[in-house]
Structure formats: C-alpha cells, structure tokens
Amino acid sequence: MGILQTAERSTQLDPSENVIFQRHLIAYKEAAKIITKGTILEIGSGEGYAIQELLKNADRYIAIDKYDTQIPDSIRDRNKIEFKKYEVPPIKDIEDNSVDFVVTFQVIEHIKNDVLFLAEIYRVLRPGGKLILTTPNSKMSLSRNPWHIREYTVSQMEEILGTSFSDYTVHGVYGNEQIMRYYMKNKESVRQIMKWDIFNLQYLLPRILLQIPYDILNRFNRKNLRNKNKGIVKKINFTDYSIQEASESSFDHFCVATK
To answer: What global pTM score does this model have?
Structure first.
C-alpha cells in the first residue's frame, strides 16, 4: 500500500494487533448475519481479511479502497469479486439503486465530506438496502488520532446518519472484562507517553505533521503492551466483544441504516 504501512490498517499477521483485529472482526461477523443475499459493496476493504466473511451469503462482492486489497488465497469464488481502487466520495462507476448492502468499517472518520459520503451510499443502495457502518466512539479514544478528520459521539453519529437516512439504529461494540483490563493498561501506557507532550502539541499541530510520529508511537505502544501482557493479547478472540445498545462506553459505533 505504499511506503508507509499505517497502523490504521489492521492485520491478523502481527500478534501485537490481535486486540484491535478481533474488535474489527466482530463487526464483520455481525454484518454477515445481516447479509442474506444480493450484491455487497465494501468501502474501505483494507487488508481483505473479511471478504470471506461477507461473501458467505452474497451473490457479488465489490470492494473499493484507495490502496490495493489482496484477495486471500482461501477465497474460492473469485468470479464474484470486483475491486476498484480510488478514494471516495463520490462513489464512481456504481449505478443508482444497484447495491443491496454497503459495508464500511472504520472509514467515515477519515472522510472530509461525511455528508456527501452518506448521500452517495444512499444513492447506490436499492430501496430496502442496508448500510452497515462502524466508526470509533470519540468518548473512548485515548489520544488524538491525526489520521482521523473527526470522531463521533452517539448523538453525533445519529445526527450524521439522519442527513441521508430516516431509518437507522446505532449500537456499540463492547469488550468483556479481559478486554477492559487491556484497555486500562493501554490507557496508562498512553498517559505515560503523552506526559512528554507538555505543550499539548497533539491538539495544536496540523494533522499531517503528526501522522508519522503517531504511527511510530502507536506501533511501539502495541508491541510493548503485547510483550508485557502476552497472556491477555494472545487469548483475546472476537467472542470477547459484543454488540449492545449504544452508550458512551462502547469502543465503536455499530450502525445499520435502511433505505
């Protein structure tokens, strides 16, 4: 995906990322329960590890990402897959009312024009089609993420969905006690790093100046946490997460909107 492998793109290949990887995986597992048939459009297909989850009940899978997405070798139905490489919005080369499901996980926080982003998703969905979306809950973020243009509270998430959809629900992704133990260790670790930011530069400097330092520190922190907590990090599975009613204590918003 270029020179910089940003920590924003989670992979199951790095053991230090298992906690965040499993948190993303639970969302795909839940989405697969909602998807029954038809055409799926995934915006932000990333490393491609979830294609096999989404393809289980679908007839066709279209992926859009600004970087190359590798199709896993385990995927047999490659004839069902189409990949498009560009940035959104707009959503190019997708006709109005032509998609049954749009899946976009951990993407909207990167989009400058989030209103247009949702309007474009609404456009390509068929009547009755569903958007399934996740994004971080700003209330649980431990620091400013310079790769994110913004993050949302529950009420802000409802407000932005309402710009295009009238039928939507916002739930949250939560972790069990084991996840919360890791979260608190992570919180303390981040606090130790941030105490050196005596001038509060993470909030004063432009995002672009902070992105590479953030990535370096983020990866360092994840690996350090893994080395000190191998028992927790290794054992965490997607079943340690759950989807429940939205609140300020969820890690991510899990949203379903219907056209």
So the answer is: 0.91
